[in-house]
Structure formats: C-alpha cells, structure tokens
Amino acid sequence: MFVRNTWYVAAWADELADKPLARRVCDEAVVMFRDKSGKAAAIADRCCHRGTPLSLGEIVDGGLQCGYHGMVFDGMGKCVHIPGQEKIPQSASVPAYPLVERDHFLWIWMGEATNADPARIPDVSYHNDPRWPERHGRLAIAGSYLLMIDNLMDLTHVGYVHRRTVGGNPAQHVDARMTVAPTQDGLHFTRWMLNSPPPPTYVKAYGFKGGIDRWQDFEWLAPSNVRQWNGAKDAGTGAYEGNREGGFQFRVFHALTPETETSCNYFFATANGWAPHDDAALDLFFRESRETFVEDKEIVERQQARLSEFGEDWLVDIVSDATRIRMRRFLNQMLDNERRLAAE
Amino acid sequence: MFVRNTWYVAAWADELADKPLARRVCDEAVVMFRDKSGKAAAIADRCCHRGTPLSLGEIVDGGLQCGYHGMVFDGMGKCVHIPGQEKIPQSASVPAYPLVERDHFLWIWMGEATNADPARIPDVSYHNDPRWPERHGRLAIAGSYLLMIDNLMDLTHVGYVHRRTVGGNPAQHVDARMTVAPTQDGLHFTRWMLNSPPPPTYVKAYGFKGGIDRWQDFEWLAPSNVRQWNGAKDAGTGAYEGNREGGFQFRVFHALTPETETSCNYFFATANGWAPHDDAALDLFFRESRETFVEDKEIVERQQARLSEFGEDWLVDIVSDATRIRMRRFLNQMLDNERRLAAE
Amino acid sequence: MFVRNTWYVAAWADELADKPLARRVCDEAVVMFRDKSGKAAAIADRCCHRGTPLSLGEIVDGGLQCGYHGMVFDGMGKCVHIPGQEKIPQSASVPAYPLVERDHFLWIWMGEATNADPARIPDVSYHNDPRWPERHGRLAIAGSYLLMIDNLMDLTHVGYVHRRTVGGNPAQHVDARMTVAPTQDGLHFTRWMLNSPPPPTYVKAYGFKGGIDRWQDFEWLAPSNVRQWNGAKDAGTGAYEGNREGGFQFRVFHALTPETETSCNYFFATANGWAPHDDAALDLFFRESRETFVEDKEIVERQQARLSEFGEDWLVDIVSDATRIRMRRFLNQMLDNERRLAAE
Q1: Which end of chain A has fewer CB atoms within 10 angstroms, the N or the C?
Q2: Would you call A303 and C53 a contact, using CB atoms and an 8 Å cutoff?
Q3: Taking CA atoms, what residue in A is nearest to B298?
Q4: What pLDDT does A245 receive?
Q5: Which residue ranges make up each domain of chain A?
Q6: Can you tell me whether residue A320 is helix, strand or coil?
Q7: Neighbour count for residue B113 (Cβ, 10 Å)
Q8: Given a contact as 3+ CB pairs under 8 Å, which chains touch B?
Q9: Residue A182, preceding bond cis, omega within 30 degrees?
Q10: Closest residue by Cα to residue B274 from B322, B212, B224
C-alpha cells in the first residue's frame, strides 16, 4: 500500500540524458525520457502493442520509439506513430505520470493526474544556492522505504550503526536533548549533543580537536522525504544559544522512493555549508556520507528479511520509538484519507 | 498449455554422444541417451526408485543406469535391472517418449505414443543435401516459444531489432510486398523488398555494392517450427520475376521448443545456398545469424517479463499483426482439438 | 514437519568464538554466542524491538547487543539493557533454546525447554579419547536431512556414487552380509564384505595390496545422527570371526541437522583409529571422506529438486530399501508421538 497522491523523487535530473531510463516506482514499471527539446516525461514502460519495455527503444522526433516494431509514444503516453499504418487507434496509448524537473530532481506523481499540483513538491531550492553546493547519489535498498524512514526517525541508532563514520559514543546519541513538533507536512525534530566527542567523519572533514556542540535538525516531509540540517561548533561557542554561524554545517536531502513493498530507491544529496568553495572537502564528506548510508542499507535489508518472514506482531516498542510512531500514525492517516477519497 | 501430439526438436543429434543429456520439454524433465548400438531414446529424467535424475547416471549394456543405486532402464523406460534383486516389479518403469533421429535433429513426441507417426515430422531433408551445407546452434530463451513464433510472423521488427545485422532501413521492411497463404501445416508467406539497400550482414557475407531485390520466404509449421528461405540479387536482375538462381541465398530452420510456459529452447540452422563449398563464408554468416537471434532473445525475454507481470488484456493489435493473429488462431484450434480428443 | 524434542547439532564448538554465529535450525533463525565467560547460548536471531538479526550485533557484558539500537539480550533471551530507558518491559525478550557444549559439538534443543535433558544427547565421547583423534567439517546441503539419512541407510549406493573414493566394485556392496536390529534410539546394522577388493580411499590411506575383509557398522540415532565404525583387515586374518584389532579402522559421526524442509547442515567428523599419532594420515583420510560426502550432496540435491517438483507418490521400493523403510517408520512414530503430546 503506497500513498499515491504525492510527489516522489523518480530520478536525479542528471541521470536522464539522451537515453530512456527505466525505474520501478510504487510497483509500476516506469520509463522516463527527454524529448528532443529536453523536456522530461514519464510513461509506463511497456508498449501497448506487445508489452515490450519501451526503455529498450530510442528517442525520436515525436517521442519514444519502441525498439520492437517501431511505435512512437509522446510524453503523455499517446501513440503518435505506427509504422505502415495511417490510422492510430484511440486505445493505442500507455499510462503517463506527471513529471516535474526541479532542484536537480525529477519528481513523479503516481496518483490522479488532476491532483498533481507542482506547488506541493518539497522545497529543496537550496540545491540552486551557490552557498550550498551538493554532491548526490543513489542506493538500491532491498527493504521498504518505511524502514528507511523509521531509521531516520530514531537517531539513537547512529552510535551503533555508524560508529566508524558519524556515530561515536552511543550514549551521547541516546542522551541527546530532543524536541519534536508536528508540521503541516510531517514532523520536525532537533537534537543537541553538547560538549560531545566529534565522530570520525567530523574530524576528517573539519579537523575538530576537542569537544563539540552538535545539532541534528530533521524535517520529515511525508511520506518519503527527509530534509536534514546538521552542524557542529567547538563546545561552548554559542551554537546552542542560537549562533550557528561558522563551524561545520551541512545539509542532506533523503528521498526514499518506494520501488516495491519491500524495496526502495534511496536518493541522497550532501550539501557543503562550511566551505562552499572547497570541492575536495565536499568530495570527502560525500564519500563518508555515502558510506554511512550503506551502513543503514545493510541493517535495513537484513531487518526487512526478518519482517518479511516473521511479520511484525511480536515487536516491542521502546522509548526511542516515540518519533517513529508519530511518523507512522501520520502516514497511516494519509493512507486512510486516500482510501476514503478513492471510495467516494 | 502445450500442443502435445506433435513432433518437437528435443536436441541436435550431435549433442548426444556417449553421455546422457537432460532437457526440459513441455515442462517435463526428459533425459536422452544412445544405447550401445547408438540408437537414441528419451525417457523421464527421474528414477522411479528414489527420484534421482537419471541424467546423473551412465550408459551400460541394456540401457541407462541410475547413478544412485544402480537400477537400469531401457529406451522404453522399463527397468531391466535392480542390483541384488531378481524379480523386477511391473511398476518399476518411467515414462518414455518416442524419439526419432532425422535431418540432424532428435525429434520428440510428448503426446500419446500411439499417435507418434514419423511421417508427420517436418521435412528438413535439405540438411542432407550437399548443396545446402548447414551450421547450427541453440539458445536458451527465457520467454514462451509463442513469443518467438510471434516474432517470426511479424517481420516489421527486422528494421528495428536487427539494424546492426539483417535489418537496415525500417521503412523497407514495413513496406515489403507480402503475400500470405494457409497451408496444411500452418502458414506460408513471402515478402519482397525491391531495389532496397542491403543490410550490414548481406554486405559482409556477399559483398553487395548497390540496391538489391530481396525476398523472405517463411513457412510456419505448427506449432513450433519455421522453415525460412531468403535471398537477394542485384536489383533488377529478375529475382522477383521468378529467376532466383545465383545471387545470395540461404535457408534457416527455426525450432522453438517449449521448455516451460515461459521459456523455450531455440534450435537454429543456417544453410549456405550461395557458396556451398565456402566454409569460411558459412562460418561468417552463421555468426551473424546467431547474433541476429540473440537480438530477438533480448527483446523477447524482456517482453515475457512484462507479460508475466501485467497479463495481455491491455494489448492493442496493429496492422502488422495480421499474420501473427492467423498463426495464433490456427494454434488455438490445435489446442482445442487436443482438448476435445482428450475429453472423448 | 520436524521432530522438535530432540538434541540437534547446531554447530561445531570451534565455530563459535568471539563473534555471534547465525544458523537456521528446524526453520527457525537462531543466533549462537559465547558470553564473556565463554559459555555458549542460543536465542532467536531477531531483535524483539525492530526485527533486526542479532547476529549483526556484538557481544558485550551481559550478553549480545543488537547492532541497530543497542538493546542487550542475555543467553536466556531476556532483554537486560535498553539504551536511554530504565524500565525494561516484561515482553522485551526473544525465544531461547537450550544449548549444551559436549564432545566438540554444540547441541541445541528446539522443543519444550523443560524436556531438554542433556542425558539424552547422543554419546560421541570418543571425540575426547586420544586413541580416536578426529577432523571435522560441515557441508550445506540443499536437500532434506531425511534424504541424507536415507542415503546412509542404504549402502548399496556406495559402489555407484563413491566409485572414486570408498566404493569400488558395486556387486560387493550389493551382496554384503547384513544384519539389522532395532535399538532404543533407532537402528543398528552391520555389513561385511569378505575377501573384497579395497576401494581407492582405503588403498591410499592404508596401503592394502590384496583382498580385504571389510565391515561397516552403523547406528542411526533418531532422528538425525549416525554413528559409524568401519574397518578392514587383510582377507582371512580373523576380523569377521571377532578379532578387529589392528588393521584399518575409523569412526565417522554424521549429524544431519534440518535447516528447512528441503535443506540441512551436514556436520561430519572422521576419527583415526588405525594410526592415532599420524596427523598426515588423518588429514588425507579426512579429505577423502569429505570428497565422499560431496558426492552424496550432489546426488541428494538433484534428488530433492525432483521430489519437490513431482512429489513421492510414484516412487517404487526395492529390496535394498528395507532398512531405510524401518528408519522412516520409526521416525514417523516419533512425529506422531510429538503430535499426540502437543494435542494433550
């Protein structure tokens, strides 16, 4: 069961050049392509003639041409050419999905096309801000996007899963001062670890020598995106009191797009807010961040295997689940709303 | 659902030497072997004692010996030896399948053995004609044999799928002059492309320099074989008017034998009718032909994946499907006949 | 369907050091670990918090710590620590399985813990006897443990499956003099091959030059273990009459522990009773024995595939199945007893 009337990240804009790109979103086979003018579109990746994936074809004038018998489909999924045949049947079309290119992403809408309002696309406009240059990547995760969002909603895992990267002393993560608040689009929480030892990645990237005041600022944008703003300064230099200027700070955007019920694509971008002109610094930090997300992937994939086999009825909530549980409640409400609207 | 009362190609005769050969035909596990006299037989590939594949065993006097406890089965599937036991129970036998070696093939009959008339084996006797030396091969296809026959019944695909081999300008394939006629055993069609550019493979194999008159002559021998006779001559040298002598010509026999509902074995032979004494020419052309069939394989396997997931109800027929549809109707009639006979 | 109220070999004791070890037993996901004192325990390999395999975690004071959010479980499966939380809910626990370290094995009990009497563990105490030094290994078998026990109950397979190792002339195995008797724990049979040619492994290991008097002494310890004592002496030197002293002799312990309905772990140990101080002799013989068991694995895995596809109703028993059938009857009785007790 997926929320459908929402914008999902389907791809990085730079993944789509002059070849079609196949991707599964909410268990539908989608192909994206740019027409000759460069405009991106998304349609079902199966020719209505004989079912061949259109992603095996090529881009021609007028749209995407099936590589089997040469039918051409435009970005609305309408067949516009059948070789050797003048009349094109009304039924010759494939489903199309609204697709918007914005902030380095291609955003796709898997629900009712008439509801697809681009104003509801999550704001990642800092990707266009030269003060926040970004590097990005993608990981295929053999686990539900829900488990990946769970992961981001309970950061007590950082000390255990990421000890070699952004973790460190588990106790500091467990004891962080945390405030959570609902937002229109989901949840917002902030965590502070005052006068705490800097984790390995922070030392490598910024050169901290002593204790730091460190914050984690997370916005869950329901159902599947998280906008993160982290930072750290030398302990006692005023960050907690409100002066976050200077020091080490970065943003991460996490887009966890459902592929199937038990797999997702993890799109992530790391933005350098501490040394915007230092490409090498961003490269290093991006590599460390990616390694961090691979650590999450390994845990979540093994977790998924257990939950797929044993269900979830036997699981026991603990105190650190509080935000995760609020997230799941919000999301179940979204699903209920969709079901109710669909039934009307 | 497979047509059972028909002859399928089970193997190339030269695939079967002094070792048993396992192959799945119409979703049955079959083992073929030659007895000490060289006569080939086909029986179920599972010992009636403990289920072990007989293909793990070895050929002994009297038949095929199971490699587990030594029981021996003859070519009729009858157990003829049980180690340490004099009396052989009546029930000690495995299913046997009529098998005929002819024209370089081993033909198998998966239906009622009493109906297995070798006179109904498709005629590929030109394989024994020194004017048509052949090279042959096999490809495992992760797609239904029906999709492969479909492929051969709609040659408008040639311009798209085979542009690097026997294709070329798509329009010439779409606009070919085509005549189709039913036969007792299936369908026969001929296509002509007059004064057309020679495709890459024809240029490599024969050295055409200008436009050619090219023909494709296809006989579908229901349910699963296609006998093809293609050729080309310099444009305007009389081929279309009936003089096919000289020039470039070749025959291909395509046997698409069902393995499971969604896979098949593709046996193909290319026969050199333009330079029968030139082995190197045949080698080159065989390699190009095999490459052509790999191109088909890649399309069909991806098509199968889509049809397995989404069914076929949403597919839309186009004009070029006409022959394919006739083929499917003929085949459905065969299946209906079998069902009716089975119910009597 | 597995017998649960019995001791299975879960691992070799030396497989378990300072890391947790994951293994599937009777289709349950188990993790074994040694606490800081070295005592081994077995609990369910899925954290009761979010389902993550505990085998991804690490051993800490107090037990095994989940690698995701840091919960710690003791050897009884009880959660003894939740980071950041003082009160531990009663429900925070995972199933635990009695585990006993003995005779180089870790023995696990998958049934009612209250019935787990270590006195019922099969006696392999010769593993502690310097006159019987042993080498051991493990093979993952993609076949039911039942098929592997079947294999050991019908040694007429030895001449066919193991011709390159411990087999040789099939007839001698088929014609062996065999006596079988029930025991309290299963079945016991002895086979003699008098004045028979020594098989390749025996020649390599001991240097036999002429005919031998060879015996096979097998005890099936229901449901899943076999204790074997084999030997050979030069023909006519009195072994059959009762003097087994001297000559070539060895013991093998076979533990076939169910993993799933169609797979098992094969633990085997070969003990050198002919030259206890000769490590090289044991190494050679162990390698040959392992090769023998790989031969069984190859047969049984292919057999399993056929039985999984075609069922077993069509199978035909032969004379050499007699002991195998007794074994299966005994085992079905055990299963019936368990079912009856469970229903009470």
Answers
A1: C
A2: yes
A3: A56
A4: 85
A5: 7-120, 130-339
A6: helix
A7: 12
A8: A, C
A9: no
A10: B212
Residue A121 and residue C294: Cα distance in Å, rounded? 59
Query: Which SS3 state, helix, strand or coil, does residue B188 take?
Result: strand
Identify the CA nearest to C320 among candidates C191, C195, C212, C230: C191
Chain A closest CA to C51's CA: distance in Å? Answer: 6
Q: Please give the residue of chain C at the shortest CA–CA distance from B82.
A: C318
Residues of chain C contacting B51 with CB distance shorter than 8 Å? 303, 306-307, 310, 312, 315
Q: Pick from B10, B184, B182, B187: which is nearest to B99 by CA?
A: B10
Joined together, the tokens standing for residue B281 give: 């020419």
> Computed over its alpha carbons, how large is the radius of gyration of chain A?
22
Contacts B85 to C, Cβ<8 Å: 318-320
Q: What are the CA-CA distances from residue C103 to residues A260, C13, C128 (Å)?
A: 48, 9, 6
Residue in chain A nearest C67 by alpha carbon: A160
Please confirm whether the linkage preceding B199 is cis (ω < 30° from 0): no
Comparing alpha-carbon positions, the chain A residue that sits nearest to C55 is A302
Superfamily of domain C129-339: Naphthalene 1,2-dioxygenase Alpha Subunit; Chain A, domain 1 (3.90.380.10)
User: How many C-beta atoms lie closer than 10 Å to residue C315's C-beta?
Assistant: 16
Which tokens in the block code for residue C245? 């002293």
Higher pLDDT, B169 or C89: C89
ipTM of the complex: 0.95
For residue A70, what are the CA distances in angstroms to A54, A91, A238, B163, B297?
A: 10, 17, 65, 12, 17
Q: How far apart are CA A30 and CA A95, in angstroms?
A: 9
As a three-state string, the secondary structure of A75-124 is CCCEEEEECCECCCCCCCECCEECEEEECCEEEEECCCHHHCCHHHCCCC
- Taking CB atoms and an 8 Å cut-off, how many pairs form between chains A and B? 75
Whether A130-339 and A7-120 are alike in CATH topology: the answer is no
- For the beta sheet containing C105-109, the strands, ordered from the edge strand earlier in sequence to the opposite edge, are C7-12, C105-109, C99-102
Residues of B in contact with C162 (CB under 8 A): none
Using an 8 Å Cβ cutoff, are A186 and A222 in contact? yes
* Facing A316 at nearest CB: one of C65, C83, C89: C89
Can you read off the two tokens belonging to residue A260?
Answer: 């199937």
The answer to whether A7 and A104 are in contact (CB under 8 A) is no
The yes-or-no verdict on residue A14 having pLDDT over 80 is yes
Superfamily the domain A7-120 falls into: Rieske [2Fe-2S] iron-sulphur domain (2.102.10.10)
Instruction: Look at chain B and count its residues.
Output: 344
Report the amino acid identity of residue A251: R
pLDDT one-digit tens code per residue, C253-280: 999 999 999 999 999 999 999 999 999 9
Place of tokens 């799928």: B161
Distinct helix (H) and strand (E) counts, chain A: 6, 18
Average pLDDT over residues C196-221: 94
Contact residues on chain C for B89, CB-CB shorter than 8 A: 316, 318
Average pLDDT over every residue of A227-241: 95
Indicate yes or no: CB of A156 within 8 angstroms of CB of C69.
Answer: yes
* Nearest by CB: B310 against A51, A67, A83: A51
Q: What is the rounded distance in angstroms from the CA atom of residue C305 to the CA atom of residue A218? A: 51
Would you place residue B344 in the very low, low, confident or very high pLDDT band (cuts 50, 70, 90)?
Answer: confident
Q: Which fold has domain B126-339?
A: Naphthalene 1,2-dioxygenase Alpha Subunit; Chain A, domain 1 (3.90.380)
- The architecture CATH gives domain A130-339: Alpha-Beta Complex (3.90)
Percentage of the residues of chain A whose pLDDT score is greater than 70: 100
Residue A188 pLDDT: 98
